[in-house]
Amino acid sequence: MKNDLFISVIIPVYNVEKYVRKSINSILEQTYKNYEIILIDDGSTDSSGKICDEYASKYECIKVFHQKNSGQSVARNRGIEEASGKYICFLDSDDWYSNNALEEFVNLVNNYNVDISIINVFNTTKEENQYTAKNDIKVYEQTEALTQLFKNASVFGTSCNKLYKKELFDNIKFPPNRFWEDMYISFDILMENTQVAFSKNACLYYRHRQNSTTTSKFSKRNLDEYFALTHINESIKKTNYRFLLFKNNSRCLNYLMKTYIKLGESDLLDREKLMVDYKNKIFELFKSQPFLRWSFKDIKRYFLFLISPKVFKLFVKGI
Q: pTM value?
C-alpha cells in the first residue's frame, strides 16, 4: 500500500496576486497531509512573488523558487527538478482543488496500483466550491487511455487533474517557449503507462477568466496548438498505435480550419501570410490519408470549407 506516499504539488506563479492565495490555501486545507508545495515564481511583476515568500515563511511544507520570466513550461520543469515527492501534481495558480483532491488521487493509486490517477474538472467563473461526489471510477488500459485522449481531451489532455509518478518525467519535458504544453506531453506521458485510473469526482476547479492563457484574445500563441498536434503525430508514428493517426489528423484538420477563420478575424500584422500557409496545410493534410479514412463529419466540414470559409463558420460551432 502507498498510504504514506509523499506528493509534491507544483504551482507555477506569474502575476496572479488576486488568485494565488486561494490556490495555495486549497492545498493547505487538504484532508491528505503528506505533501510539499513547490511555488515557482516566474518573474512576476506584481506582488505574487512576495505572497509566495509570505506563505513560505509561515509553512515549512512550502518552498519558493524565483526565476526570470521563462514561461509556464520552464516553470513546471523547474518544479519537477526541485520536487522531493515520489509523486507530483500540477496546479495552475488561478485554479484550486476541493479539499479532498489529494486524498482522491492517493486512493486511486492505492486501490488500482497505477502510476497516473485522474480526477474530473469543474469549469467555473465563480469562487465557491460546488463539489458533488460521484462514486464512478474507471480504469483504462493503455490503448483505452490513449483513445480517450482524443475522445475526452479536456480531461485526458490536461495536466492539472492528474497525479503522476515523478519518474515518468525522467525523459519527458514540457516544451519551453510554447503554449499548449499539456497537449504536447499528453500522448508521450500516457505511453509510459500500462493503465490509469479516473474518478468522475470533479475535485479540480478550473477558473475561466479574461486574459488567462486559454481565454485571452487570439494571438500567435494560439498557433502553438498545431505544434503540439504535429508532435503527437510524430510520437504516434513511433508506436504500435498508428490507427490513432486518423483520430489526431481529424483533430488537426478541424483545428486548422477553425484557426484559419480566427486568423481572418484577428489583427495580426502577418495574418494574410499565415492564412495562405494554413490553407495549404489544410489541403495537404486532407490529401495525406485515404479519403475513406476521414469521418463523414470531417469530409462534410472540409467541403464546406472549400465552398467558403464563411459557409463553414455558419455550420460549425465553437469558432
A: 0.91
